[in-house]
Amino acid sequence: MEEKTKIAVLVSGGGTNLQALIDAEKNGIIRSGRITVVISNKPGVYALERAEKAEIPAVVINKKELGSQEAFEARLIEELEGRGAELIVLAGFMCILSESFTKRYAGRIINVHPSLIPSFCGQGYYGLRVHEAALERGVKVTGATVHFVNEIPDGGEIIMQKAVTIEAGDTAETLQKRVMELAEWKILPQSVELVSKKIKKS
Ligand code: GAR
Q: Which pLDDT belongs to residue 201?
């Protein structure tokens, strides 16, 4: 039996969080898991190139082309089972997963969200929108959260959080960059190590 937890990383865009995971595996922050596949719901995204550069199999499951959530999830399950994935990491993955999918992989799916949950989360809060909402509300502190995924968007058990201070003159873009650098790229790899280790012990 492989002694490392097999990790599938799901992406939809630039993939800076994927890069943080690849780097963390190289430098030993992730020791108990191995990224075995990267899956994108969209073709042509930069995250796929990052996977290829790191020599990790990269797969596109084109949600638009497949037409329905059911067809998309059926292909996803086929791919995950075929590769023996034990942990699914949503790293900038912009699709909501159904209750039957999240129940099938209960305790095996984790997500990174760019705010301190329960603020600025749930349906409609993703990417830059989260930071726009934080600035509009005038909060002084925001951050990132890594949590288990259940049937409620951004509603699963929290694994780690890290706070980031909002600075005068911040735009959604400057805030997004700081939250990524100071919070997401740190707590996502740390959480992946924590959960990978637990899976191997269970
Ligand atoms: C990240 O900030 C991630 O937390 C966020 O999208 C960005 C993706 O960037 N995810 C969500 O908003 C999910 N609700 P990346 O592709 O460079 O990792």
A: 86
What CATH number has the domain bearing residue 37?
3.40.50.170
Nearest ligand 1 atom, CA 93:
13
The secondary structure element, H or E, covering residue 87 is strand 87-90
Q: Best mutation site among 97, 113, 117, 160 for ligand 1, i.e. most ligand atoms within 8 A of its Cβ?
A: 113
The pLDDT of residue 1 is: 58
Cβ–ligand 1 distance for 88 under 6 Å, the answer: no
**Bridge pairing between strands 33-40 and 5-11:** parallel
Overall number of domains in the chain: 1
pLDDT, tens digit (0-9, with 9 covering 90-100), for 78-87: 999 999 999 9
How many angstroms separate the CA atoms of 86 and 34, rounded? 10
Residue 24's CB: how many other CB atoms inside 10 A? 21
Test site for ligand 1: of 40, 50, 97, 126, most ligand atoms within 8 A of the Cβ: 126
Q: pTM for the whole thing? A: 0.97
Q: What is the 93 CA–ligand 1 centroid distance (Å)?
A: 7
Tens-digit pLDDT profile for residues 64-79 = 999 999 999 999 999 9
Q: To the nearest whole percent, how much of the chain has pLDDT over 70?
A: 99
Domain of 139 in residue numbering reads as 5-201
